[in-house]
Design goal:
The protein has about 240 residues and is of the alpha+beta class. It is about 50% helix and about 20% strand. The chain contains nine helices and ten strands. The strands form three sheets. It has a four-stranded antiparallel beta sheet with strand order 1-8-3-6. Strands 2-7-4-5 form a four-stranded antiparallel beta sheet. A hairpin with a 5-residue loop joins strand 4 and strand 5. Helix 6 crosses helix 7 and helix 6 crosses helix 9. The longest helix has 27 residues. The chain starts with a helix and ends with a helix.
Length: about 240
């Protein structure tokens, strides 16, 4: 086995070992070999587009390290962040199964490492592996449920509730820095935070300032420290 193949195998096995969905465990030996041979690792810079709306879906994407946002351009140039991707998570396959082009875009929030598998190979394996098919059915169903909840929250919650929810999404997805166990482990631009909360940047900045005044958070540039998580979750819940 060549060093390159060995390195790819080690990377893939490290990725799937951390994957709670157990996708690696449902593959046969031959399927694992095909994954290793066709898995391509790529490095992306901060704010680099991974794929764009109306692109043809060719790959199953896996975020190995870093942070990724899925977003959609709306009316008047406004952007809505649909979902945040964390490692190790698979994305970018729904459009292929639907037989259509991408209806949203994906880009990095920080320097990131991503892996790809051709969707044609994934489809071939799914047709021969019921457990793998169930994995994707489960993921698609879970994402659909999350999307339904997000639609209701974005349309019915007030600004405070939407921003509090966005902060909790960041906390639940990416956690906090180990040195203080309070600072969010993601430094998001105000515009991105507004796009995640379905509000203008000005409203996001004003609401953040209100949270600071209420001693719910501390803001230092792009760093946000959570001081009162229970109260933020309460605001998020009742909107």
């Amino acid at each position: 086995m060549s060093k390159i193949t060995r390195d790819i195998r080690n990377t893939i096995e490290q990725v799937v070992a951390e994957d709670l969905s157990e996708i690696w465990q449902v593959l046969s030996g031959e399927e694992k070999r095909l994954v290793i041979e066709n898995f391509n690792i790529q490095q992306y810079k901060k704010n680099q587009i991974i794929y764009a709306e109306r692109d043809e879906p060719e790959f199953l994407w896996c975020l190995i390290e870093g942070k990724v946002k899925k977003y959609k351009d709306g009316i008047g140039g406004r952007v809505q962040i649909i979902r945040l991707i964390k490692s190790v998570q698979y994305f970018g396959y729904r459009a292929y199964f639907a037989g259509e082009t991408y209806v949203s875009s994906a880009a990095t929030l920080e320097p990131s490492t991503l892996g790809t598998l051709p969707m044609s190979l994934v489809e071939k394996m799914i047709r021969n592996n019921n457990q793998l098919a169930m994995f994707f059915i489960h993921e698609l169903s879970r994402n659909l449920g999350s999307s339904d909840t997000k639609i209701v929250n974005l349309t019915q919650k007030h600004i405070r509730g939407r921003l509090a929810e966005a902060l909790m999404v960041l906390l639940d997805n990416y956690g906090v820095e180990e040195d203080d166990n309070m600072t969010l482990k993601i430094y998001m631009a105000r515009e991105d935070l507004a796009n995640l909360s379905n509000m203008t940047t000005a409203n996001a900045i004003r609401t953040l300032s209100n949270f600071v005044s209420e001693r719910l958070i501390v803001v230092d540039g792009r760093k946000i420290k959570i001081l009162n998580e229970p109260m933020l979750r309460k605001i998020s819940k009742f909107g």
